[in-house]
Amino acid sequence: MKRMIMIVCALLMGYAHTARAQWVVTDPTNLVQNIISATQGTTTATNMIKNLQEGIKIYNQGKAYYDALKTVHNIIKDARKVKLTIEMVSEITDIYVNGFNRMVTDPNFTPDELAAISAGYARLLEEGGALVTDLKNVVTSGNGLSMSDKERMDVVDQIYYRMLEYRNLTRYFTNKTISVSYLRSRAKGDSSRVLALYGSPSERYW
User: Fold this and answer.
1) Which residues contact 128 (CB under 8 A, 6 or more apart)?
2) What is the dihedral of CA 173, 177, 183, 185, to 10 degrees?
3) pLDDT (tens digit, 9 = 90+) per residue, 47-77?
4) Which domain holds residue 120?
5) Does a structural domain hold residue 203?
6) How many domains does the chain have?
7) What CA–CA distance (Å, rounded) separates 178 from 183?
């Protein structure tokens, strides 16, 4: 167990090898332009872009930790949860950017509603980023914590399942928001446009 902790600590301190896992590449460029177009450059746009910038900052911080972990060869089961937890930051950000990028082009949402949706995503990303910081503090040596190997792995488990909850909550938040647009479009006899915008879901949003 101590050997496993040493492996994780070394990886988080920046050792690198060949990549073994995928990190979602998130490009927010179009989203910024769509936000400006949807809100006509108002202070609402400024707030949404600020939320986006904070989200991408958290994404980049997570990627820095991920880069230190992605090359683990035959990673031990418990240590693998560390990597999977960090990967979920990428997933959450990707769900946010891709989902919200469509929402800001959706006429069924007002600028004020888009601002509220943006704030919701920002909160989810903030909580996810805090968990990554907690994870780094637990597995990095010299953090001043006096914990046994079992205690560390118990905390890793707790953080992993909390991150999983935030990832699932981000998906749920996205799906429920899309369902609002669908219901509004259906009332106007225009549901096909929403399906064309968001794609046909594998499961119902509404």
Assistant:
1) 58, 62, 88, 89, 92, 163, 166, 167
2) -150
3) 888 888 888 888 888 887 777 665 544 444 4
4) 2-198
5) no
6) 1
7) 9
